[in-house]
Amino acid sequence: MNKGRFLAPIMVSLLLLLGVPAISMADSYYIPDNYVGGNPTIGSYYGHDVIGSQSEFGVTGLDIDITAGQLGVTVLSNYFDNMGLYGTELGDLFISDNGWHPYGTAPYNDDYYRNGEKWEYAVVLDNEQRTSTSGTAYLYAVDGGSIEMSSAPSGYIYRAGQEVYYHPGQSQSSLAVVPWEIDPTLGTMTFDIPYSFVGVEDFGFHWTMSCGNDVVEGGVSVPEPSLLLLLGAGLFGFVGLRRKSIR
How far apart are CA 243 and CA 237, in angstroms? Predict the structure, then answer.
């Protein structure tokens, strides 16, 4: 039996999985909610991941799916079964295209917008959709507009200083139309962003509800296509050497 004929299709299949076509397949990542964030309005909540009840405001993490021309972000949170509670509402999704750079060290008890990450993009919901379960949002570059911080009605404890909304500049145009949907049963809010973040290798993400009672932040690094191609070339070389050795 010619083992080279047997190995070749296996290696080619690996190349197809790891080489150029892999760029068009989904790269999936999970960001657990290991971020706390600063500025609780009552000092006894300093260092607490959730202000209030975990069952009402707790965020578990983010699922990230990256393909050519598409970015999928799913927020996992108990809040999606409690929207509108105590006058709260959905926040916008913030994205960085140069990595994630929070202030301090994990779990970032002192990080908030004024001293932490500055975002390059925001997925902005319409105001009337902020207690809905689906709708259309818009992707904007964070440029020329303003960022609104977390807040709560008088008398409520919350986490201040966390970025919640982006208000685009008066003449600012959106970069993409973004469908989003909430499944309260699964506790998910999914954004399907039809935008190609060309050349971006390190992402950062941030989401919270209007009170900032639980904030999820984190980053992912995407393998460079050149590294995948190099690995593919190495597999082809291995196939060639293997075939010579068994003749």
Answer: 10
